[in-house]
């Protein structure tokens, strides 16, 4: 009886944390948006992760032959996407999932090993739902604002590339290289904050991503 009581308390605690935790309102907003427009009969591709995904406003126009769900939520880290994997990915029964996380983790001094551990857990949840779902891990991008962390980002990207070799349904989209010129991050592809991309930056991303969509 004692252990049952403790289990009930833990369930109530974590259930409450899920409902009132970080990004809860953002996730709810995304769900409300796609509750109105998502069509279960159409082939769906999910793009998810932090603000680099959230701010890709014309992503549906880039891939008109598919139903695209953009469930990016700005400021998120890998642990946040893990927390909301069901709400932001699995609910839409995607054929393919593009994941961009790790950028904010590195800036917050989260260890590379922990980021990769969270990424593996996200992959495992997706595969548990449908083993045939294809997953594309988008490399961390370079940026002016975070160029001082470039070696940590490169290490993370090597880890993500290794994860992509787990099986044939996982791949790695290298957006780092096109954003760098002569080992220096390009300045013409960013907004004034030096972190988020302008349309030119997203055009570079599209040149890489479209190969993985098709």
Task: List the topology elements.
Layout (H helix, E strand, L loop, with lengths): L1 H19 L3 H14 L6 E6 L1 H4 L4 H4 L4 E4 L7 H6 L1 H4 L7 E5 L2 H5 L4 H18 L4 E5 L11 H14 L6 E4 L6 E2 L2 E2 L13 H15 L1
Parallel strand pairs: 1-2, 1-3, 3-4, 4-5
Antiparallel strand pairs: 6-7
Helix pairs in contact: 8-9
Organism: Sediminicola luteus
Pfam family, one: Lipase_GDSL_2
Keywords: Signal
Structure description:
This protein is of the alpha/beta class and 214 residues long. The protein has a single domain (21-213), classed as 3-Layer(aba) Sandwich (Rossmann fold), CATH 3.40.50.1110. It is built from 10 helices and 7 strands. The chain has helices spanning 2-20, 24-37, 51-54, 59-62, 78-83, 85-88, 103-107, 112-129, 150-163, 199-213; strands at 44-49, 67-70, 96-100, 134-138, 170-173, 180-181, 184-185. Strand 4, helix 9 (150-163) and strand 5 (170-173) form a beta-alpha-beta unit.
């Amino acid at each position: 009886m004692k252990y049952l009581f403790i289990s009930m308390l833990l369930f109530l605690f974590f259930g409450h944390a899920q409902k009132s935790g970080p990004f809860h309102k953002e996730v709810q907003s995304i769900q409300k948006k796609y509750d109105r427009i998502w069509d279960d009969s159409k082939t769906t591709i999910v793009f998810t992760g932090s603000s680099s995904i959230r701010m890709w406003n014309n992503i549906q126009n880039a891939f008109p032959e598919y139903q695209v769900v953009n469930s990016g939520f700005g400021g998120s880290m890998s642990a946040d996407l893990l927390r909301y994997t069901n709400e932001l990915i699995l609910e839409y029964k995607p054929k393919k999932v593009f994941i961009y996380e790790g950028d904010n983790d590195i800036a917050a001094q989260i260890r590379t090993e922990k980021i990769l551990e969270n990424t593996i857990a996200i992959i495992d949840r997706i595969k548990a739902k449908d083993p045939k779902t294809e997953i594309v891990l988008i490399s961390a991008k370079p940026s002016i604002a975070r160029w001082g962390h470039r070696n940590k980002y490169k290490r993370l990207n090597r880890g993500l590339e290794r994860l992509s070799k787990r099986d044939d349904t996982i791949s790695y989209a290298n957006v780092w290289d096109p954003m760098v010129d002569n080992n220096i991050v390009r300045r013409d592809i960013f907004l004034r904050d030096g972190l988020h991309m302008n349309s030119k930056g997203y055009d570079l991303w599209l040149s890489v991503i479209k190969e993985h969509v098709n």
